[in-house]
Design brief:
about 300 residues; TIM Barrel; eight-stranded parallel beta sheet; 9 helices; about 35% helix; Xyl_isomerase-like_sf; DNA binding; AP_endonuc_F2_Zn_BS
Length: about 300
């Protein structure tokens, strides 16, 4: 299945969210096959609150595959279960979410991974303030139970009662996390655009990164999810589109892959794909947009 990846521009680590079907180590092989130099993956079933323990032999095979193909843990971004709502006002859901966060971080440790990305949560019938407090509470609890792994909050589209659509909400959660060396942010381009951050015009990416730096701090930025948007600016709909085929357009993605402040972090596709324009083709397109540095 694996094929030799093309030489990538220095400091740009583009990849996609790949399947773990057939064994968690298969994610590594799948990433190589599509030309990825970074990847995201789920760490288990998305349908169950509790999952079988991670098989030790599978964890070893995963780490061996990463070493063989040159994947550094900082360019691998596990994604949390969509079942989790660490800000839920319902105590049973909050408790199960908190326990799942601990389990996910423990799996990361067993796999030799250094960071874990998840959707912060939704307030449901509570207030945003209480929701953000509970999210930080769950993170603090998980940090106490597990070593080293960085919890990476994803910005959201602002759909329904989800938290994280505004940079200020992410900052509020971070402010309540005790160990700030173990918290970060993944910026999703579709979510940001749908939440009202216009990255589409020339200079839009620079402007949004400047704003993120003012509100949150660029030192917290750990990853980017590369997704065009089916919905219009500020629509609050989480509807991903293929690169250059949506309302954001190709200009923003050209700026992203040439932005020095986004060097050395995983740039991960979560696009739907279409015949002839699946992950492999979109990764190739994004690398083709990287401008070669002129020699003096």
């Amino acid at each position: 299945m694996a094929q030799k990846r093309k030489i990538k521009p220095k400091k740009k680590y583009i990849g996609a969210h790949v399947s773990i079907s057939g064994g968690i180590w298969k994610a590594v092989e799948s990433s190589v096959a599509i030309g990825g130099h970074a990847f995201a993956l789920f760490l288990g079933s998305q349908r169950c609150w509790t999952r079988p323990a991670l098989d030790t032999a599978a964890a070893v095979k995963f780490q061996e595959a990463c070493a063989q193909h040159g994947f550094d843990p900082i360019h691998i971004l596990p994604h949390g279960s969509y079942l989790m709502n660490c800000g839920s006002p319902k105590e049973d859901v909050f408790s199960k979410s908190q326990n799942m966060l601990v389990d996910e971080l423990s799996r990361c440790s067993a796999l030799g991974l250094s960071q874990f990305n998840f959707h912060p949560g939704a307030s449901i019938d509570s207030t945003p303030e209480k929701c953000m407090e509970k999210i930080a509470q769950a993170i603090n609890h998980a940090h106490q139970q597990t070593p080293a792994v960085i919890t990476v909050l994803e910005n959201m589209s602002g759909q329904g009662s989800t938290i994280g659509g505004q940079f200020s909400e992410l900052r509020s959660i971070i402010d309540s996390v005790r160990d700030k060396t173990r918290v970060g942010v993944c910026l999703d381009t579709c979510h940001a655009f749908a939440a009202g951050y216009d990255i589409s015009p020339p200079g839009g990416v620079k402007n949004i990164l400047d704003e993120f730096d003012r509100v949150v701090g660029l030192h917290y930025l750990r990853a980017i999810h590369l997704n065009d948007s089916k919905g219009q600016l500020g629509c609050h709909l989480d509807r991903h589109e293929d690169i250059g085929c949506g309302q954001i357009g190709i200009t923003a993605f050209r700026e992203i892959v040439n932005e020095p402040r986004l060097d050395n972090i995983p740039l991960i596709l979560e696009t739907p794909g279409r015949p002839g324009f699946e992950y492999a083709e979109q990764i190739e397109l994004l690398y083709s947009l990287c401008e070669k540095k002129k020699k003096n």
